[in-house]
Design a protein that fits this description.
Order of helices and strands: HEHEHHH
Strand order of the largest sheet: 1-2
Radius of gyration: 17 Å
Distance between the termini: 10 Å
Number of domains: 2
Number of helices: 5
Number of strands: 2
Shape: elongated
Largest sheet: 2 strands, parallel
Length: 131
Amino acid sequence: MRGILVLWLYWGLAWRTLIELLRQLMHRRKTPVRLILEGLPAHNRSIVRDYVASMNGRLSLHFLPDYAPDLNPDMLVWSHLKRTGTARRPLHKGEKLRGRIDSELATVRDDPTLPPHSSKLLLKPIFVTAE
């Protein structure tokens, strides 16, 4: 089976963002798309389900289990950051959360205990296609 891999990384997903991403993905697409998502509440809103239904079978959503590091190694990175990073240290006066997270993501890049590909993926937005 041939396919295409599309990877989106974004800050602050809301259902509106997801629908816009889905619209971009489906624009001029002639073949069916099977999309694998995490189980975020925004992914399973009724408005998202309605959009998927409007695609008349050209788009289907499949959800990962709640905790599946073997299927989604980025979970290990986020778990590490929650245990050791921002969640454990309050922000200093005037410090921005985005800057702190960017800095902490940079520190996990070379951590040998984390999956190497996932920590690199988190460092910059990527759009990848491969056949």
